[in-house]
Design goal:
The protein has 91 residues and is an alpha+beta fold. The protein contains 1 helix and 6 strands; from the N terminus they run E-E-E-E-H-E-E. 20% of the residues lie in helices and 44% in strands. The model has no long low-confidence stretch (mean pLDDT 89).
Length: 91
């Protein structure tokens, strides 16, 4: 893998856009967990992985975390990262 720095963007089903970078790491997928703590509060966990298999392995761990932490519910989502031209930040 070359050391070329690039930006990677994930677009979630609800329209949320996450851009990471610049990075030279070979990330391919972005995962996100939105945990409903008590019907009023939520907490978000996210990360990026080098394969869909690695991203999906987080799903089983999420079910265990939900039981241990007493989450009311949670949503787990994985999307493919696509190379983008640059940061979505306004500065």
């Amino acid at each position: 893998m070359s050391n070329k720095k690039r930006y990677l963007t994930a677009v979630m089903a609800d329209g949320y856009v996450k851009t990471i970078g610049p990075t030279s790491s070979p990330f391919t997928h972005y995962w996100r967990i939105v945990a409903n703590l008590d019907g009023k509060r939520t907490e978000v966990f996210w990360g990026h992985t080098k394969s869909i298999k690695e991203a999906m392995s987080k799903k089983a761990a999420t079910a265990d975390a939900a039981r241990q932490r007493g989450w009311v519910s949670y949503d787990f989502e994985v999307v493919e990262l696509v190379e983008s031209k640059g940061s979505s930040r306004p500065y």
